[in-house]
Every structure is written in C-alpha cells, then in structure tokens.
Design goal:
The complex is a heterodimer. The mean pLDDT of chain A is about 90. Chain A is built from no helices and 11 strands. Chain A is an all-beta fold. Chain A has strands at about 5, 10-15, 20-25, 30-35, 45-50, 55-60, 60-65, 70-75, 85-90, 100, 105-110. Chain B is mainly β. Chain B has strands at about 5, 10-15, 20-25, 30-35, 45-50, 55, 65-70, 75-80, 90-95, 110, 115-119. In chain B, the strands form 2 sheets. In chain B, strands 2, 4, 5, 6, 9, 10 and 11 form a 7-stranded mixed sheet that branches. The radius of gyration of chain B is 14 Å and the shape is globular. Classes of the chains: A mainly beta, B mainly beta. The interface of A and B includes residues 35, 97, 102 and 105 of A.
Chain lengths: ~110, ~120
C-alpha cells in the first residue's frame, strides 16, 4: 500500500538542539496526525491537524498542515534524551475512509 | 484499563499453523483498526471496523487473513496457514468514530501490538 515519504530517515542531534522533519504525499489528505513510537510500544499520538495551513503546538512540539494538503512538518524545540524514538506522520481522509496512511518514519537519536 | 490492550504480546508459531490475535479497544470507541508493521517499516492498514461491520477490508493481504468484532468491543484477527512473511508486529487502534460524535472522532489510539514470529 501507499506510504508517505518522510525526511530525514534518521538523525543524530545534540541535546538542546531543535529538530525538523517533514512528510510528503502524492495525494491530498484532510487530516494529518503525528505519532511517536518507542521500541516495543505502539505509536502514541502527538499532534492532530485538521485544516490546511494550520499550525498547532503541544509543548515543545509544533506541527504544520501544509497549504497544498500534501505535506506536513513537525518541529521539536530544545530536544531532550526522552525525545529519542521513531516519529511517524499519518494522513487521513475523513470523508471517504478512516484508515491512516503512514509515513516511512524518522528515527531520532539524541546525543548527550 | 484506559487504553487499547492486545494479547498475546508475543507469539511464536510454526509455518502452516493458524493464529488468533486479540484487541480490546478503549471503552466506548466505535471504530477499530488493525495495522501491520514489518521490522523497521511504517504501519500498513489491514482492516477497519465501525461497530461490528467492516466497511474497509482493503488492506488484508490475502484470504488467509480475516477479522471479526463482537459488537463494539473485542476484535480478533486470524491468520490461517501462517507463512514466514507474516512475521511482523500487528497493531490495533481505536477511535471514537464519526457516528459517536465528539470533537476528535478520527484520532486513533494504538495498543502495544502483538509481535508474531513464524518459524
């Protein structure tokens, strides 16, 4: 099935640095969700975006719903060790089907 | 509990055997989803339930895969005659669903998954 492209695939950063990642699709979605997955766990919902152009924050996380509805961005400010994990974007078209189409994931590792 | 639960957490089976994976959604959530995650990859949609009907089965990879749901609660994913390529983590998610109303009906909450290994 379709998977959304996420960039970068992985990143090593220093504690305290800001992080940016993006997700792109060949088709339009009307909802974007960002999840974080720790080893051996299911994904945990971080942020949900419902309107093109919307910018939403959750603590140190900020996500944007691209104006074309084909992309989304996630920023993490002042990274800390517990930010380590895999971040997945997911697109959803609520009008036709409720299944999430997931991105390929961005693996984040934080160096102390 | 308050979250989605799945059992077993790990399952090792021999090729050719049948397996059943169980999901208990969040109480009151009408929508339930099954996804598969192969090692190092993202999640692939398998099937979606609204109540106990399955309007979208498009992700089931073959007729060896089937799923049932009892009312608006437990769901079972069954894989018959397992193959080595079925080895993956199987994740279940639930959401309150459009029919239930509420502000965020489409936000899906995931269980911890069942890690299936076919030897």
């Amino acid at each position: 099935g379709q998977q959304l492209n996420q960039n970068p695939q992985s990143m090593f950063i220093q504690e305290g640095e800001d992080v940016s990642m993006n997700c792109t699709s060949s088709s339009i979605f009307n909802t974007w969700l960002w999840y974080k997955q720790d080893p051996g766990e299911g994904p945990v919902l971080l942020i949900a975006l419902y309107k093109a152009g919307e910018l939403t924050s959750n603590g140190r996380l900020t996500a944007q719903f691209g104006i074309t509805r084909k992309d989304s961005f996630l920023n993490i400010s002042a990274s800390i060790p517990s930010d380590v994990g895999i971040y997945f974007c997911a697109g959803l078209n609520t009008g036709t089907a409720s299944k999430l189409t997931f991105g390929t994931g961005t693996r984040l590792q934080v160096m102390l | 509990g308050a979250g989605v639960s799945q059992s077993p957490s790990n399952k090792v089976t021999e090729k050719g055997k049948d397996v059943e994976l169980r999901c208990d959604p969040i109480s009151g959530h009408t929508a339930l989803y099954w996804y598969r995650q192969r090692l190092g990859q993202g999640l692939e949609f398998l099937i979606y339930f609204q109540g106990n009907s399955a309007p979208d089965k498009s992700g089931l990879p073959s007729d060896r895969f089937s799923a049932e749901r009892t009312g608006e609660s437990v769901s079972t994913l069954t894989i018959q005659r397992t193959q080595q390529e079925d080895s993956a983590v199987y994740l279940c998610a639930s959401s309150s669903g459009q029919l239930a109303g509420g502000p965020f009906p489409h936000e899906q909450y995931f269980g911890p998954g069942t890690r299936l290994t076919v030897t």
